[in-house]
UniProtKB/TrEMBL annotation:
<dbReference type="InterPro" id="IPR052064">
    <property type="entry name" value="Mito_IMP1_subunit"/>
</dbReference>
<feature type="active site">
    <location>
        <position position="83"/>
    </location>
</feature>
<dbReference type="GO" id="GO:0004252">
    <property type="term" value="F:serine-type endopeptidase activity"/>
</dbReference>
<dbReference type="InterPro" id="IPR036286">
    <property type="entry name" value="LexA/Signal_pep-like_sf"/>
</dbReference>
<dbReference type="GO" id="GO:0042720">
    <property type="term" value="C:mitochondrial inner membrane peptidase complex"/>
</dbReference>
<keyword id="KW-0999">Mitochondrion inner membrane</keyword>
<protein>
    <recommendedName>
        <fullName>Mitochondrial inner membrane protease subunit</fullName>
        <ecNumber>3.4.21.-</ecNumber>
    </recommendedName>
</protein>
<dbReference type="InterPro" id="IPR019533">
    <property type="entry name" value="Peptidase_S26"/>
</dbReference>
<keyword id="KW-0472">Membrane</keyword>
<feature type="domain" description="Peptidase S26">
    <location>
        <begin position="15"/>
        <end position="152"/>
    </location>
</feature>
<dbReference type="InterPro" id="IPR019756">
    <property type="entry name" value="Pept_S26A_signal_pept_1_Ser-AS"/>
</dbReference>
<keyword id="KW-0645">Protease</keyword>
<dbReference type="GO" id="GO:0006465">
    <property type="term" value="P:signal peptide processing"/>
</dbReference>
<comment type="similarity">
    <text>Belongs to the peptidase S26 family. IMP1 subfamily.</text>
</comment>
<keyword id="KW-0496">Mitochondrion</keyword>
<keyword id="KW-0378">Hydrolase</keyword>
<feature type="active site">
    <location>
        <position position="39"/>
    </location>
</feature>
Amino acid sequence: MTTTIGSILTVSSYFLRSICFLHISHSYIYEFTETRGESMLPTLAVQNDYVHVVKKYKNGRGCKLGDCIVAVKPTDPNHRVCKRITGMPGDYILVDPSDSIYREKSDSDEPFNTYIKVPNGHVWVTGDNLAHSLDSRTYNSIPMGLIKGKIVAANDFNQPFWNGSLSNILGFRKIQNTFIDEES
């Protein structure tokens, strides 16, 4: 009887430790999560695309212009967004002239001349598919504290399991920073 209770306690202890380890890993080290929506086409698929998120970039630490990130949506803290950083603190960003908010205000070319300076501690994010993206053009720059991590790779489960290459198992691909520094 005591051996059975001891075995149950040992198994329970290992189970609890495993859950704690998974929680800590998911919160502070690495996350593998599904994305949905067309705002990041062609970088990410509309559905069945899973991203690899490295959490060492949490709160914007080490993030650069052009990085793809996962962040808490500023207008709904229960949702996350995948976007590309297109403006860093201190950058001047041209307001999107196609936005209906600016079109209703004036029929002039004013939106083409309206700039916003990204405040310290904030970033400007946009989707790669600008026509179908709710991003900083809608909710303004986001605090770096909302950044949960940087997307380094993705798996597209719409692809076949094996595509003839070891680097393309399960539609695996690295997510590249599309901004190139001309001075380097």
